[in-house]
Each structure stands twice: as C-alpha cells, then as structure tokens.
Amino acid sequence: LLVLVATGAYAIRVCHELAGPLQEDLVQNYRLSLGCQRLRDAATRMSNALDAAGDPIGARHDFDLRRAAFIRELMAQSESSAGKPRQSLVEALDTAFTAFSTRCEAVLSGGASASPEAFREDQSSLYRVLSAIDRLVAADYAAARETEGHAEELGNTAVGILSIAIGAAIGLSAILAWSLAASLLRPIKTLTSSAVALGEGQL
Among 28, 100, 103, 157, which residue is least crowded by beta carbons within 10 Å? Predict the structure, then answer.
C-alpha cells in the first residue's frame, strides 16, 4: 500500500511539473517567437515606406504606424526578457533599431544623402536590425529545445521509477500472497497430519 501511495504521489508531482512550469516555458517561447516575426515585419515595412517617394505624406503615415508597432512589440519583448539571458539580445536589438529609425527619419525629412554609399548604409542598418532579430529567434529556439529536453528527461525518469515501483509492488504482492497462503495452509496441514495419525492409531 505504501509503495502504491508513493508511486501515485510521484506521478502527481511529475504531471504537475509537466503541466506547470515546463508548459509555461514552451508557451512563452512560442509567443516570443511570434513577436520576433512581428518585429521583422514591422522593420521591413518601415524600410519599404522609404521607397514611396511619390507620396511623402502616405510614406510618413505608414512609417510612423510600423515604427509604433515595432516599439510596442519591442517593449513587450523587453518586459518578458527582464532578468533572463535574452535580455542582452533585446538590448542589442534596441540599439540597432534606434540607429535604423534615425536613418529612416533622416530620409523622410529629406536630410539624408541620396548617394549609393548612403543607400548601402540604410540597407546595412536594416540588416543589423534583422540580424539582431535572428539572434533572438535562435536563442528562443535553443531555449525551447532545452525545455523540450528537460521534459523528455523528466518523462523518461518518471517511466523508469514507475516501472521499478510497479515491479516492486508486484513482487511484494506475490510475497504477501505466498505468506498468506502459507499461513492459511499451515493449520490445515496440521489438522490433516493429526487426522492421519489418529487413523493410524497414533494418539
């Protein structure tokens, strides 16, 4: 009975851990990955807004809209990463985005050079933002793999322990059954021996 109780308690603890912190980590990693996709989309659309030279008002409106979306998602990423290893990656993304946004502002205001060198620098600033996002995605993927490995390890350990506990419970049940059967048969054997002795005239 104690073995069964201990086995059940361990199974409950394992299920609670799998359904609790590990599940939360996986869900959080998934949300952060989706957020990185939104960051990439917003940065790309900010760059595309610079190409709408024929409609400066529309370009400014679209740029401001995408920049606000980027900042909003970046703040959410920063809040979720506070005190975690990926915080430094979010800070690096913030630095790259600030430089990229500044160059975009200069282009929209007409204060930027139209030289090929300036164009290459504009593209480089976008590339640095996208590269920072890629590093975030890679870190989130590694964290998800680590959580998955922990869950698999915990599951394998639980299976092993439960198998041993079940085997021990079966063995203990067999021993108890044999002991009980022996204790029940002992008086019957004694009575049988006495009856045989009495029949043979051995009083």
Answer: 157
